[in-house]
């Protein structure tokens, strides 16, 4: 194989890789935009729920948040609402909710808690510790 053929093959591989990288960057941009929109919608829904909860008379019983169709997010927020001053570690929260305590499950919940912190529902008083924002 001659040097010219090697250079041509190298250039072809380079062009293909650049095209693939550009395609992946476009996908990342689309997914990042979709994620930002979805997280903004979650924040709107959480704020709406907070306003509605604030308008509910104290003597009016609220519907239980934990139903068969309740999401994990709802269950997490319910725990923090029931224990507003308590600081939870992720593993303790999993044990409280009866969720698996394997590392992948813990990491998913850690990510969920991070989103709830960014949305302003929770605060992080220390590394790996979460509590309801007061």
From TrEMBL:
Pfam families referenced in this protein's UniProt entry, alphabetically: AbiEi_4 (PF13338)
Domain AbiEi antitoxin N-terminal as annotated: residue spans: 83-131
Tagged with keyword Coiled coil: yes
Ranges in a coiled coil: 21-48
Superkingdom of the source species: Bacteria
Keyword terms, alphabetized: Coiled coil
Cross-referenced InterPro entries: AbiEi_N (IPR025159)
Protein known as: Type IV toxin-antitoxin system AbiEi family antitoxin domain-containing protein
Organism: Streptomyces hokutonensis
């Amino acid at each position: 194989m001659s040097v010219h053929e090697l250079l041509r093959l190298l250039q072809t591989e380079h062009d293909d890789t650049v095209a693939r990288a550009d395609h992946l960057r476009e996908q990342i941009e689309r997914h990042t935009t979709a994620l930002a929109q979805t997280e903004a919608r979650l924040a709107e829904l959480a704020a709406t729920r907070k306003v509605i909860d604030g308008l509910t008379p104290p003597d009016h019983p609220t519907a239980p948040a934990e139903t068969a169709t309740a999401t994990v997010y709802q269950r997490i927020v319910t725990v923090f609402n029931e224990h507003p001053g308590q600081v939870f570690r992720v593993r303790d929260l999993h044990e409280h909710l009866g969720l698996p305590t394997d590392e992948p499950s813990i990491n998913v919940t850690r990510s969920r808690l991070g989103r709830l912190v960014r949305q302003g529902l929770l605060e992080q008083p220390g590394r790996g510790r979460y509590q309801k924002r007061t």
